[in-house]
Design brief:
alpha/beta, Four Helix Bundle (Hemerythrin (Met), subunit A), Rossmann fold, 434 Repressor (Amino-terminal Domain), eight-stranded mixed sheet, 8 strands, about 55% helix, binds guanosine-5'-diphosphate, binds magnesium ion
Length: about 450
């Protein structure tokens, strides 16, 4: 998610040794400054961050630990604004959330992502209200999203937004919903009419949270419009959408400090699982190359149930991992979001995440081939990969529309992966894994250091 920034932090950190002189510090700071500015972090934010770091390090003595600690501390300060972090539930349900933003910023998509996260990870009962009645297509879009996620929707193309909100509030209360998400209309630019409609809806809904969805691709404009919404409507959080398309990432670093409202979530793709909470502590850890295992664990425990994970583990250990297990694992992986975002949360893996780009588990050519191959197998063959002799492979290749070389290659890869997994699941497996990571990290920071 912050590939470029993480790289430049690492490089600056490596300029400082355990005990060093002020010249080394100057060099590291100037390198940081250059790359932060290049990443579109606002120049005032950069200046404040770096002068704070410089002051503290000089006070404590130039050295790697002092530099790391000062950088981590002041980064966290910059990323933090007064207000809630992550998704916060009202003390009395339903928690009412108003989604605001300009047209095309990603309000409707983000509404769906919230519903997905709340339902899948937090096991909450969610209701969505379609209060965008500017365009008929908007209601239909939300209807499809609600259906896809599997949550209830209040919508009526012929009603007024205010009436929809009233109806939704009543339904949320009567139906004992945990959360009500209200999707509103946006316009191409900020105007009186938009603000008046939002003010009316706000008055009726009396929301616990007002999120402003800003398009990360609009760069500095995202910050400016968020500030205007804060002033005119009063927002409690910012969501930066389309962060996957913004390779620089600096807006995310400056927005909380500049607007004075916490950045709460980041949208990292078009699909429903592509939403990440922005928790300053964790982001600092990630920026400094130490990964974000907490978020990863949160995501995986919500999606992967413990029982089946244990079952799979046992099979792997015994060398019995088969094609059915593989398909099941792939289904679960899909729920975690994009491969790139998962990788970037693992300590030391951020640079690799950058290299692998985005593997689309559903649509990549390889995945399609593997799925076609498995679906051409008999149940017995799926259970026992060792059954696959040449005549069976020929039959499978024909059924899947692949040639035999492709089938052989996939089976070989599968067997290698199963072998590797078996090795890693053994007694010294964790140690081996850590060794591999340490080598890949190449001078990075041990994850524990920042806490
Ligand atoms: N790549 C990417 N696209 C997004 C993201 N969020 C929204 N979009 C796309 O942006 C476009 C506008 O989104 P929409 O939710 O309809 O915006 P709205 O007008 O504010 O409701 C759609 O094509 C979405 O698929 C994101 O995080 N990443
Ligand atoms: Mg919309």
């Amino acid at each position: 998610m912050f590939d470029t920034l993480t790289e430049s932090f690492k490089s600056a950190i490596n300029k400082i040794r355990f005990h060093d002189d002020e010249k080394a510090l100057k060099k590291a700071l100037s390198e940081l400054k250059k790359s932060l500015l290049k990443s579109d972090v606002h120049h005032k934010v950069v200046k404040e961050l770096l002068s704070n770091v410089e002051r503290d390090v000089k006070k404590m003595g130039v050295g790697k630990d002092n530099f790391l600690n000062a950088l981590a501390r002041h980064l966290k300060d910059i990323l933090t604004a007064k207000g809630n972090q992550g998704f916060v539930f009202a003390s009395k349900p339903p928690t009412v959330v108003l989604m605001t933003g300009l047209q095309g910023s990603g309000k409707t998509t983000t509404t769906g992502k919230f519903a997905y996260m709340l339902k899948e990870q937090k096991k909450k009962k969610v209701l969505i209200a379609a209060a965008d009645l500017q365009r008929l297509a908007a209601v239909e879009q939300l209807r499809q999203i609600a259906e896809q996620v599997g949550v209830d929707l209040v919508a009526d193309e012929n009603a007024k937004p205010e009436d929809i909100v009233k109806e939704a509030l009543k339904k949320a209360q009567d139906g004992l919903y945990d959360v009500l998400l209200i999707d509103t209309a946006g316009r191409l630019a900020i105007d009186e009419e938009l603000m008046e409609e939002l003010a009316r809806i706000k008055k009726i809904a009396n929301p616990d949270e007002i999120f402003y969805v800003a398009d990360a691709m609009t760069g500095i404009d995202a910050v400016r419009t968020a500030a205007t919404f804060k002033e005119k409507i009063g927002i409690t959080g910012v969501v930066l959408s389309k962060f996957d398309a913004d390779s620089k990432g600096g807006v995310a670093l400056g927005v909380a400090h500049q607007v004075g409202v916490p950045l709460r979530f980041i949208g990292s793709g078009e699909k429903m699982p592509d939403l990440e909470s922005f928790i300053p502590d964790r982001i600092v850890s990630r920026l400094m190359g130490a990964g974000d295992l907490e978020t990863l664990i949160e995501k995986t425990t919500a999606v992967i149930d413990e029982k089946s994970a244990k079952k799979i583990n046992k099979k792997i250990k015994k060398g019995q991992f088969n094609f059915n297990d593989f398909l099941e694992q792939m289904e679960q992986m899909k729920k975690l979001g994009s491969m790139k975002s998962i990788m970037s949360m693992i300590p030391g893996m951020s640079s690799i995440a950058k290299q692998i780009g985005d593997i689309d588990l559903e649509n990549s050519k390889e995945m399609k081939q593997i799925k076609a191959m498995i679906s051409s197998m008999t149940p017995k063959e799926r259970e026992n990969p060792d059954l696959l002799n040449n005549s069976r492979k020929r039959r499978i290749a024909k059924g899947a529309g692949l040639d035999q070389v492709q089938v052989n290659r996939i089976i070989k890869q599968f067997k290698n992966a199963a072998k590797m997994a078996k090795k890693l699941s053994g007694k010294n497996g964790m140690k081996q894994m850590q060794e591999i990571m340490k080598q890949m990290q190449g001078g990075g920071i041990p994850p524990g250091l920042l806490r």
